[in-house]
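Colleagues,

For the teaching module next term, I've prepared a clean inverse folding example: a structure given as tokens, and then the sequence designed for it. I'd like students to try predicting residues themselves before seeing the answer, so please don't circulate the second half yet.
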């Protein structure tokens, strides 16, 4: 990665993840959520099971309808705003306002930028119990798409089309609907939606400007299956596919996206950060393997990865420690000897230390299989490495 934003909590590289116990409903692994994401490149989810021949690098329309929240809103000039205060204010307004639409849109956008899409969806659903504003339905469809729930997003957009009528429905939303219908395998419906778009909104500037996109989608529909899926929808698979294998496949595709500019970095980073919070250890371990924080953040990254509940993730982090050979790694690993309880992982901690100091004696699995054996190794290593 060529750029990084500051760390938030115990870990942040690029847009990184809060680590650990006690943050909201903390998962049983170290990487909990994204804080301070980079601008979304073409992000959002799609449902599992789509395996097109390539990933589209075209901009994915409108990832989130709501404008980015103003971080300074609600505070006097010259003060340093705390995002948690703004979130609390918005949640208060959501609960008490006669019309919660504006608060819901700002809060949902805030949460989505923080990779908290499920919470954003809950916010929209709460607001819709007291407001029928069409913007909430549009935002809900976007969030569903970004969570990989394309079938539900289709239902939401069709309901909006029924409420507004095709002549009043924004043409870009009709195009989104056609895209989603195609991705869901309903090619007749997608073709019909695209036909209506081109007929009813023929003179709309958006439709004219999108002629090439409409023609490309029509060709894919006529071919019987999509040949491209936007990065937005692959990110959706990563966030919301029900099976770990599908999320792993999405991660593998995203970390290999190359756009020829800095945008590929933001996609790579975003994919890794999402995967670091995955419930499946295999996905988290793969994310650690693809993480590439800047050197001055690597120790914090390694400390967070070593705190993961999965020995698979911890072993992958140890491999990265050897790859990076970052200053300060040896003290970190020495300290970890007292905490590691998995015998095979303990041996790998020792092996990682020996990569820095080859004269250290090797540690056998039997020696690492008891707490007393591990303690003896730790004492011996510290004695040998004492200044």
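(Answer key — instructors only)
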């Amino acid at each position: 990665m060529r750029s990084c934003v500051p760390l938030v909590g115990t870990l942040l590289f690029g847009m990184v993840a809060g680590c650990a116990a006690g943050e909201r409903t903390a998962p049983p692994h170290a990487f909990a959520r994204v804080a301070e994401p980079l601008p979304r490149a073409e992000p959002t989810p799609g449902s599992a099971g789509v395996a097109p021949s390539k990933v589209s690098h075209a901009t994915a329309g409108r990832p989130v309808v709501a404008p980015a929240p103003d971080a300074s809103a609600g505070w006097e000039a010259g003060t340093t705003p705390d995002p948690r205060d703004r979130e609390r204010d918005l949640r208060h307004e959501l609960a008490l306002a006669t019309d919660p639409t504006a608060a819901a849109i700002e809060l949902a956008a805030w949460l989505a930028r923080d990779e908290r899409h499920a919470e954003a969806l809950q916010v929209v659903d709460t607001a819709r119990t007291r407001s029928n504003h069409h913007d909430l339905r549009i935002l809900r469809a976007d969030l569903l798409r970004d969570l990989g729930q394309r079938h539900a997003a289709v239902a939401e957009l069709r309901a909006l089309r029924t409420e507004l009528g095709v002549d009043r429905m924004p043409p870009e939303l009709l195009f989104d609907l056609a895209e989603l219908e195609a991705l869901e395998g309903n090619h007749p419906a997608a073709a019909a939606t695209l036909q209506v778009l081109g007929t009813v909104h023929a003179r709309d500037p958006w439709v004219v400007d999108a002629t090439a996109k409409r023609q490309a989608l029509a060709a894919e529909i006529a071919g019987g299956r999509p040949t491209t899926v936007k990065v937005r929808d692959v990110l959706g698979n990563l966030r919301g596919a029900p099976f770990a294998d599908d999320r792993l496949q999405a991660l593998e595709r995203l970390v290999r996206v190359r756009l020829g500019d800095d945008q590929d970095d933001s996609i790579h980073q975003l994919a890794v950060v999402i995967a670091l919070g995955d419930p499946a250890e295999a996905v988290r371990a793969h994310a650690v393997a693809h993480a590439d924080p800047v050197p001055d953040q690597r120790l914090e990254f390694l400390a967070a990865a070593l705190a993961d509940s999965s020995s698979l993730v911890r072993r992958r982090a140890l491999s990265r420690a050897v790859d990076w050979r970052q200053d300060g790694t040896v003290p970190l690993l020495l300290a970890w000897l007292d905490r590691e309880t998995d015998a095979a992982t303990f041996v790998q901690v020792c092996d990682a230390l020996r990569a820095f100091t080859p004269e250290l004696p090797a540690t056998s699995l039997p020696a690492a299989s008891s707490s007393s054996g591990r303690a003896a190794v730790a004492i011996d290593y510290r004695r040998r490495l004492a200044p």
